Structure formats: C-alpha cells, structure tokens
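Notes to self after the call with IL:
- keep both proteins in one doc
- input above output, always
- annotate only the second one for now

Protein 1:
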Amino acid sequence: MDARHIRNFSIIAHIDHGKSTLADRLLEITGTVAARKFAGHSQLLDSMDLEQEKGVTIKASAVQMHWQAADGEMYELNLIDTPGHVDFAYEVSRALAACEGAVLVVDATQGIEAQTLANLYLALENDLEIIPVVNKIDLATAQVQEVSAEIAELLGVPLEEVIPVSAKEGRNVAAVLQAVVDHVPPPDDPVDAPLRAMIFDSHYDPYKGVIAYVRMRGGQVNADTRLLMMATRARCDPVEVGIFTPEMTPVPQLTAGEVGYIATGLKTVREAHVGDTITSAKEPAPEPLPGYQPAKPMVFASLYPAEADDYPNLRDALEKLQLNDAALTFEPETSQALQFGFRCGFLGLFHMVIVQERLEREYGQNLVVTAPSVAYQVELNDGRTIEIHRPADLPDPTLIKEVREPWMKVQVITPTEYIGVLMEIFRRKRADFLMTETLDPKRVQLTFDVPLAEMVIDLHDRIKSATRGYASMDYAFDSYRPDDLVKVDILVNREPVDALAIIVHRDKAYEKGSLLIRKMKEAIPRQLFEVPIQAAVGGKIIARVNVKALRKDVLAKCYGGDVTRKRKLLEKQKAGKKRMKQLGNVIIPQDAFLAMLRLDEE
C-alpha cells in the first residue's frame, strides 16, 4: 500500500481505563474480526490466559486494520495495544517507538491518573501526535464535561478535539478512526533505501524459531531475502513474513512504514534481541537504527526448582520466557538450603508474580521462590564499588565503607480527604515528602522520595486499601543514596539460611528480625528435637524463638511401679534426641519464604 495511506498508532492509558475494550471495538468496526468472535470473549488482543484472568494487558500486541475514511480512500491502520500497569512501562516505550501517533484514553469516571501522565510524557518524548479520548461515557457516574476540560487543559487543545466514546457500547468509536486518519502523520520511511526493520517485540515458536515483530523503517523484505541481525551478526533465511490480523497472516512482502512480523527460523533466543535492526545480508544498511534503553531490573528474587532434577528444565523455560519478556534477567546461583537455582531480576513485584505464574502454567515448573529484594551498591574500604542482588552477598561489615540503596520518585494522585492517611503510610516507609500540587478542588498530586526496598512488597496495596481504590500511583527510579543498612541473618538450628537473610535499616533490625523469626516459627514444622530460630546482625544474636520438639510418650506402657525405670526411659530419650540434633537437618517449606512477604502486615 502507498505509504500516504498508512497510519501507525498506539493506545495509551492508565490501567483499567478501557484500552483493550476500545481496541476490540476498532477491530469490530473495521471488519478485521467478525462480531461473532467477540461472543463471550472480550479483550481479543489479550490472548494470554493470565491477561484474561487478571483483566490487564501484559504484552504489547499488534494488529493491522483496513478502513474507508470520510474521503472515500482506503487506509491501512496498524494498532499496537499497550499495557497500562506501571511495571510494564518498558513495553509501552517500545511500542511507542514504532508509531507516529497515540490515542490517549481517559476514564470519564476517574479522570486523569498517575499512569495517564506517565504514558503521555513517554508519547511526547517520542514526538507522537496525541488524540485525546474520554471513555465510559455510558456510565451513570461519568463526568464527561469536567474530564474533557481537564484533558484539553493538559494537552493545550480546544475542548471540541476531545472525543467522547463508549468503547463498551461502540458509541462514537468511528470518530476515533477518523481522527487517526486526519491527525496522525503517515510514515516517511524511504522504500528505495537499504532494508532496515526495528524489532520492537518477539516470541518463540517451536516450528518457526524466533518470530520478530518489526516496524519497517526502510526498504522491503520478503521470504527470499537473506537477513542479517546488525547487533548479533546472526544470519538467517526467513521462514515467512506477514502481518497481524490479529492472527499471524503471511503476506508476499513488507515495505517501509508497515508493521508486521518476520519468522526468522533462528533457534536460540540470544540471536535476535528486542531493539536490534534487521537488514539485508547482501546489501546491509550502513548503520543500525537507535535501539531501546535496556530495561533495568529493580527487584530481585531467587527461583529454585522444587525437585533438584528439574534444574535444566527451569533454565530452558527461563531462556524461552526471556525472549518474550526482554526485561527479565537471570543468572545461576546456589544456596545451602535450596541447592541450585537462578537469581532473577524483575521490574517490580507484579512483574515477578506474572513471570512466576507463566513459568508454572506455560512451562509446567514447580517452583520455590524466595522473598524479593532490591539491588544495593556497596562501597568497600579499598575504593571499589560492587552491586549486590541478594542480601547473602553483602560483604563482612569490617570491609564496608557505605551501603547505598535505590530510591524512587513516587507520585500519588488522590482525593483530598485521604491526604492524612497517605502521609502516615509514607512516614512508616521512611519516605521524604517533597510537595503537594492541587489538580482541581477535589484532587491533589503528592510527590515523595521512597526507598525501593520499602515499596516493593505492599505499598501499592496499602495505598489502594487506605483510599478505597481512588488513589493512583506512578513511580520512577531517582538515585542511589547511602544509609545505615545492616544484614539480618536467620539461623535455623544454628545454621545460617542464606535465602532468608534480609537487608534493613539498623533502626528496624530488631523489629523486623524478631517479627520474621516469629513467622518462621509458625511455618517450620516441628521435629523430633527442639529447633532454635535466631536472628543475628553481624555475629550478635538479636532475637530467638524455639520450635518445640515433638514428644513421644515413652512412659505410655509404664503402669505405676518403680520411678527409676521411668527416669531411665526419659534419660534414654533425652540422649537420643541430643544425638538426633547433631545429625538433624531441618527442611524449610515454601511457607517460610512466603512469611517474609507478610512482614509489613502487622
């Protein structure tokens, strides 16, 4: 198709504002997907089971639509549906780099929220044309005029440019397509230039190898073009090229300006990175396209197979999942308690939960997962700085000059009546309050600096609970800052368990250590001998509890009679338990690691 009739655009919004429902209506109106396909099945682009269950978009997905505009011309519209959850902001940034425009969707009942602003700024950084849309106008609580005025003021556009729609009922959705045709510029990628295709996403297919989702930035490609990956220098003959309708549909060729896929046939995930440029092996482009900033993991946790024999299967599963999820990082590690496993890096706690569930469902893994921690920078006395991803790796305190932890800039948009309760939540999280901005008479934006370690477990849940779901939160990395941080070791039966160690502020060491061992006491099953559980900082024990021994009644068969016989049996039992204690290993169940996730609940 002529590039003048191509439009590439994304839909961006805060989580739950109706992106995927609007995408469904666009597919229906353009006739891309028959209406019967939607019967009993909404959010057609959210194809993963997890996306359907949790009602969130996790992966950006692409689809090509054809639509006849008001001028009678037929247009090719390439839509990339993006996630709204803050943990998947890297998916949004990659999708936006493949577009010329973005439809900004705002819920008429909620107004502008934290992620609305974050995604809008991402789109503006990519110089995209913004099309403002107010969704859910069919609801009784919709405040269409007020929210439209809010968006118009934010973008600096006339009020009449804000399009009111009901994605659920399909009301006025055609106006969105017309606005895309009228306002989003066509791609200006040259067809006669050397082939350059940007990989903005990918997945692995056992028959076709690595399937790269590409935005064509120059030239054209067909199934006979021998290809070269410019970053990895891998060469391949494509199995097929095609477009998303939304199923993968082969086409004879892709030309500059289009969005589609190339089934590369490559068998290893490392040969086709997201952000790489694909070019022709015969006539390569002189230089690659600017790639993406690699996503930096902020939360780390260890994944171990429940059965040691499953270690190779877990490694294969992580490699395949990493292709589909470029932000996941992992490296092998060993633990005294849990044997061989992997230290994995995630963008946030929700990202970690999604990866864990995908490993269990899609790859049949049975996992033991340790409590999440964050990356710390440690400056040693000899001038070196090292980064550690798990508390057990913290060097001896005598070697450390200072420990720095990551701090995040957090913005919370909330109704004014919840300011007091939010201030108290953030005070307990060691946060620094920065400022309050009034958005309208009923809502404010609060800005804080918060240590990531304090956020990672339950901050989002606490904010939602305290504000009855009305507040929304966005966060971004700010800096590493030094603080008085110490490692709390947990000893079970006098043996340190490296997977249970935590790094906390010195002021909270006793409180967190004693709370953790009390939780451990509930989780660790009783043995035939007494098991001490201790919390220690450095070499000093700061708290201790005992798991009482299971006691067999050795006197059950003694009916009265000589007391010395009873004493002899009890002494024999005592000696046996002492011997057993020297040999005894305590098996630590998964519940013990889950107890660490619930530390802040009390």
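Protein 2 (the one to annotate):
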Amino acid sequence: MITGDILGERSRLSPDAVALIHAPTRQQFSYAELNQRALRCARVWTDLCSLLPGDRLCLLSENRVEYVDAFWAAAKSGVILVPLGTRSTAHELSQILADCGPRCLMYSARYDALAKELQQLVPFEYSVALDAEQTGPKVLSYAEGTARVRPDPLSTRIQPEDIFCMLYTSGTTGRPKGVMIPHRQIAWNAYNTVVSWQLRQSDRVQVYTPMYHAGGLTVFMTPLFAIGGSIVLHDGFDAAEILQALQDYECTILFGVPTIFKMLFDSPEFAALDLSHLRWCASGGAPLPLQLLGAYQERGLIFRQGYGLTEVGVNCFAMSDEDSRRKAGSVGRAMMFTEAKLVSPEGNQVATNDVGELCLRGPHVCRGYWNNPAATAQVIDSEGWFHTGDLARCDADGFFYIAGRSKDMIISGGVNIYPAEIEKELLEHPAIAEVSVIGTADEKWGEIPVAFVALKSHATTSDVELIEFLRPRISKIKLPRHVIFTSTLPRNAYGKVLKLELQEQLRNLKSGAASEREN
C-alpha cells in the first residue's frame, strides 16, 4: 500500500545515511535520527494535543529542521498539515483558517507577533511554540513536548487517499482554495521524479525556497528522501550563503526559479565557484529567459526546465541532458505514468505544434479543493483530466513548450499572484469605483503587478495612499509597483474588463516615459 511515509521507509533501508544538513548550524541528521524526530513530533500531536487523523494543524515558520519534522509527522499520524505563508498578513491567513478549521497552531519565534494576531482571530485548542523564548499559559513548548514522549510508531493505518497536507492557492477568484494533497500524490510525485529525472543516491540538493510552498516541500525533498540522497536546508534565500554551501557540500543539483538564478549569477561569488560537482540545474515556477539559460550554459552547466502545479505535483515533465541542449525552451516529455494532452476551447485535442490548454492525468493529481466541490469540478473532469489553465504546444517528438497562461495569473519571482486578490482588497477603499490589475514585464522579477484605478465621483486619493492601504492587507510581493489612474476601465459588451487594452495603454505610457527621458 502506497503512503507518503517515505522517510520511514528510507530510514529502514538506509538508517545511517545523511538525510539532512542544516546549513545555518551545519548540523547533520541521519535518516534514523530524522525518523525519530518525526515520530516524536507526531506523538506530541497525538499524545499531548489529542489530535486525531483528519484534524488540521497549521504551521507558521521559516525553513528549519522542525518544519521537516512536522512534514513527516503528517505522513505518520494522519493529521493534515496546513503550511501558512509567512509573507501573508493576518487578514489573508484568517480566510484560510476559517476554511480549514484547524485545531492546533505550531509557530516559530520569528513569527510570534503574527501568530498572536491569528490566535486572537481563531480559537485554537492547542498552540505549540518551536522556540524556548516563546511563552504563554496555553502554549506548549515543542522541545519540552518532544522530551516527554517516546518515538514509538503509531498504530494509525493510513490509506493512499487520506489527505497528507493542504496547500492553499487563491486562484482567479481571490478566494483561498485548499488543495487536498493525498498520500498517494506525495508518493507518486517522489517515485516518479526519481525514475524520470534519474536521481541518484549520491545526489545532494539545497532547499531554500519557502517550505510552505509546494516547491520547497516536494520538488526535491521527497524524491531525494525516496532514493536516499541528502538535502541541504537553508532558512531562506541568501545568495552568498547558498553559493558557499553549494561548494562546501558539493551539491550535485541546483534548483530555483528564474529570478533566483539571475540573482545567483549576478553575485560576485559566482564567477569564482568550482562547479565541477554540479550535474545540472533545474528551473521552474516561471518561463526561463533564453538569455539567462545561455549564460549558465557558457559556464558549461546543463540546464533543465521543469513544469508543475501544486494540484498535479510539482514535477510533471522530464528531459535528458542531451534534450536540454537540443530542445532549449522545452519542459520536456511527460514523466512516466503521466498523461498529457492539449485541447482547444471546445475540448478537442489540437494538432502537433498547435497551442492548446494543457491537461494532465495520472496518480499524481490531487483530490481537488477542500470544501469546494464547484471549484474541483471546474478543473477535474469526469475522466480524471486536470485542466491546468496553462497554454502549451507539443512538437512531433513529444516535447512540450509552455506558451502562456489562459488565466490572468502574474508570476513574480516564481510566486503566483492572482489579480483578483489585489482587486478585491483595493475595492474596499472608499475612493475607488473600479479597479483592474495586470502584470507587466520586469527585468529582475519576471513580472510585477500594475493597478489601473477609476475613482468615484469627486473622490480623491494618491498612489502612495493606496499602497499604504494595501500594505497590511496583502503580502509585500503582491503590492502593485505602479498605480495608474483612469476615468474608466475599458469593457466589452458583457462588462468584462478588456485587459489587452490596458496592456496597450501601459505600453504607450512606458513608450512616452522613455521618449521624455531621451529628450
């Protein structure tokens, strides 16, 4: 029976192998040690917090060893882990908490203030503090709790369709949706990535992207644990630290989003690095600029591009080293046990090299959205195909190329931003009559949000005031970089905002500004 307790299985097979290296402290953990920690964490939940299989536990923390404990404790206990975005505001997170109904909150000292705001909004039955300096009458110390319990295996029998964790994505409506990720999905994504990407037991990969994101949790951590490799864990992104650790630990694969690869390449330390141990680089989260790809290839590095979604597993395509050169710009062929097709708006399969919506089917597809059968029905059809909303084409050799997005999503530094989230909050401002948010190209971040705003009659405000209005309501990365005031928004006969016209207006404004600078 396939379940998500990959750590437990690997610790049985390779107990003494190095599973995790914590970069800030340089502390190392074997598979056996990490498995014992996960069992103690699970026992804190079940024995001290009385959590049952199916109960939801929220985790608010930076990347750290205890985050890894909690992830694998979910695999063992049946408790559903709900990671919370540390860049989000209490206002944003309150919508997630209202939806998932958690019984417990685990949090670190770094986000103590935000945790206290959440505790005022939600009556958590239990709170678990990850750091010793956190105190409170209803707060359990994680260190003390793990010392009180024994790392005995749990008797809970996990089924493949049981929910392992829920990762929230806002979607185009602006309402957070909890992606139900079952144990079956975690396991298949891990095993399939090992086989299709040809990972090795000798591989060592850094994780520095946030672990509240599918990329931080499952791009390489779960596959590497499945094959018995090692993870180097960073608590966040620091280019100098990452490049130093890349060399010190002779990491064999480097993963990131295009923005990160650009920042690493521009770092003064990069040019002098010995990269002979690096097998290849993998980029995901957003289209990779060919100019950046060429810059890495000039250093003799192999660069593979990936594609995935939280809902269908973060690794859905694969390519060989040779393919990465001759099929530059492609995300590869569909992985083993992954079906992929491209369909027209009418639902018909498109011809070779024609663009259509990418649909995926396989054992790595999620169960849908928590408490939202309508949203689930919109993306998973009666035959089990997941409709991604992304546009792609497929060549005669079966290699897929992402052509764009049918949704209005903005990808900034690899982070998905949905205009509806920003629009919904801006419409709360008393001076605004209507608003539309679009993305525009940015050299550093890939894309940034821009807000077009029409004011109510006789109302006044400024771009600075609107940004300050938004600041406590949405995370920093979602803040519009520009606010453009207009008398009205262009709409079609059905009242839909014509965002292509807004893009044209924005191009004209940029062109005009450039002309003024030249003069």
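Annotation: The mean pLDDT is 92. Residues 499-518 form the longest helix (20 residues).
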